[in-house]
Design a protein that fits this description.
The complex is a heterodimer. By secondary structure, chain A is an alpha+beta fold. Chain A has four helices and four strands; from the N terminus they run αββββααα. Chain A is elongated, with a radius of gyration of 20 Å. In chain B, helix 3 crosses helix 5. The chains are: A alpha+beta, B alpha/beta.
Chain lengths: 110, 252
């Protein structure tokens, strides 16, 4: 595997990373040159097969969901100062589950 | 066929200390001190990615020589009101460090504020170093030390020889300046004496990371692009032009 690539492979990386919703290709040159798909996965070109390998590095990046939850938690802390944090978090989780019931069902099935 | 012949006298290895910057404890994210360029249309997720990155640094320890650094985020964006996501950043004090309009003086003020904080912390480090040296010196050799390095005594006297533990100072910081949606402002001037370009060139020296978010890569002067080390390319219709600029900068 190599990170020395040509324009076709670069285009392939870009298309791969941007195919999903809110997808973007991130090029990190702060140490070795790395190609990332939305910060949480690293991309490599497998020269033997000329295929893109997506390796999930399990980068501990905060998920967007967590940011959304945080944005719900902040006003609720002001609105309900007497309620403890864990209870507010539980209520927010219940609210989010009610918004995405299908995803939850799929998770249970899997 | 090219023949390569080694020349004698040019194989001396240079010895020097590498600069040691604070780094995130996870070891997987972009290393400090970076400049990042995020290119994508409105709603493509540029701001989300920047906030995710900062949130990541907020949740992980930033350490250098077993000293933990604090994160401070500054934001310059005319669309702050439309981007509620910035409220989720603990390191961004919206009232103090978020600004609507870019101008060179504002950037200089932010940089001077950062420099002043850094100078204060550097003074503490110097005091600690001098204090340790003073304590290690025998009383009979104080005069000799004073003759050689009077600045040690001057600084220790200024703080009445207090123990470094009692030296009041701010926690050292890593600063991130977000420049969001500044097309049409004076930020991306092509003048050679651009304040922003100059600051981005010296970012490591000042220990600042710049995150530049734009909708079009064309609007960003070459000198700024050349000084970026992290790039985010969101989905774009004009991807061929994007690639050409990109390949020149970072892949060839």
């Amino acid at each position: 595997m190599s990170n020395v690539i040509g324009i076709e492979q670069f285009q392939e990386l870009y298309d791969h990373a941007t195919a999903k919703k809110y997808g973007s290709l991130i090029i990190d040159t702060t140490s070795d040159k790395r190609f990332l798909s939305n910060l949480d996965s690293e991309l490599f070109i497998d020269n033997a097969e000329n295929k893109i390998c997506l390796i999930n590095r399990e980068m501990p990046i905060t998920k967007i969901d967590e940011i959304d939850k945080d944005m719900l938690l902040r006003p609720s802390l002001i609105l309900y100062p007497e309620v403890e944090d864990w209870l507010l978090n539980l209520a927010i989780e219940a609210y989010e589950n009610s918004l995405h019931p299908k995803e939850k069902d799929e998770l249970i099935e899997n | 066929m090219i023949i390569e012949k080694k020349l004698e006298g040019f194989n001396n290895k240079l010895k020097f200390d590498k600069l040691n910057y604070p780094q995130c404890s996870c070891g997987l994210c972009p290393k400090f001190f970076w400049n990042s360029l995020h290119v994508g249309a409105r709603g493509s997720g540029k701001t989300y990615t920047v906030c995710q990155t900062i949130k990541h640094y907020e949740k992980h320890k930033i350490i250098n020589d077993s000293i933990q650094y604090k994160l401070r985020t500054h934001l310059i964006s005319p669309t702050i009101q439309a981007n509620e996501i910035y409220q989720s950043l603990d390191s961004l004090e919206l009232e103090k460090d978020a600004h609507d309009d870019y101008n060179d003086q504002l950037l200089l003020d932010i940089i001077n504020d950062i420099k002043a904080e850094k100078a204060e912390y550097d003074k503490f480090l110097l005091y600690k170093k001098y204090y340790e040296k003073f304590m290690k010196t025998l009383e009979s050799k104080y005069e000799k030390l004073y003759d050689e390095e009077p600045e040690i005594f001057h600084l220790l006297e200024e703080y009445e020889y207090i123990h470094p533990k009692d030296f009041k100072h701010e926690q050292p910081k890593v600063n991130i300046i977000i420049l969001d949606d500044l097309l049409g402002s004076h930020a991306f001037t092509k003048k050679t004496k651009s304040v922003l370009t100059n600051a981005m060139i010296k970012n490591r020296h000042m220990q600042i990371c710049f995150a530049v978010l734009v909708q079009s890569i064309h609007a960003v002067p070459k000198n700024i692009r050349l000084n970026c080390s992290v790039f985010q390319l969101a989905a774009s219709k004009n991807k061929k032009i994007l690639f050409k600029i990109f390949m020149k900068r970072c892949l060839m």
